[in-house]
TrEMBL record:
Residues 46-126, 142-220 form the Cytochrome c domain. This is Cytochrome bc1 complex cytochrome c subunit. Heme c 2 binds at residues 155, 158-159. It holds the Pfam family Cytochrome_CBB3. The cytochrome bc1 complex is composed of a cytochrome b (QcrB), the Rieske iron-sulfur protein (QcrA) and a diheme cytochrome c (QcrC) subunit. Binds 2 heme c groups covalently per subunit. One of its GO terms (cellular component) is plasma membrane. It comes from Demequina mangrovi.
Amino acid sequence: MNALARHRYHRAAPVVLVLLLLALVTGIAAAVSTASSADAATTTADDAAEGEKLFAANCASCHGLDATGTDGVAPSLVGVGAAAVDFQVGTGRMPMQASGPQAPAKRTQFSQEEISQLAAFVASLGAGPAIPTAEQVDPELGDAANGMELFRTNCAMCHGSVGGGGALTQGKFAPSLWETTPTHIYEAMLTGPQSMPVFNDANITPEGKRNIIAYIEAQDAGSPGGLRLGAIGPVAEGMWGWLVALGLIIASTVWIGARSS
């Protein structure tokens, strides 16, 4: 009886059973993962296909059906990435309302779903910067003090010391950043729209970009010195000081003259 039991239940049987179970679980997990990846790829392909239709109807007249651009009219979009599309279309700069030195921000012409589809189509044409994640643009995770140093070193000469905007040459301008979303600020640094230079991760790290966003968001807290006076620096503040002082001097002179006569 003991010999029969030993013959039926080999000591290696539990190990073999565990290995078989592990192989079964691994196979199921791999199958699920593959199915999920296939679903994601299908979704992306569907978005790109819908984006291609939107592009042909709304953008191809300037950028060409193959998005390679038109000389003297519009640049190629091959390789600009999804971030560039999300910024330009998401801020209403594109489609451009009229020819001019630069495209101003305006009301968007597409829904967020359509913007994502256009971005997916352009991203499929060539590698480029992707749309940043929510964590990358979260100002709560940034350091506003460090962002102030980075902003004043890299951005203040155009956008002003607190992001209020400023004039450039030939009718161009650096827009105010106070109403710009954190995602669009990050995308602008990544892609360098219009007159703005590109600040890739070698120039300003992702953490540095988030710190800059935290600094800009901190400007909503108001000015500790009182009125902003346009927030364009000490020149405007000094001018107002002189105007007020001179006004008081003139008023006092007129009052004294009137009393004396």
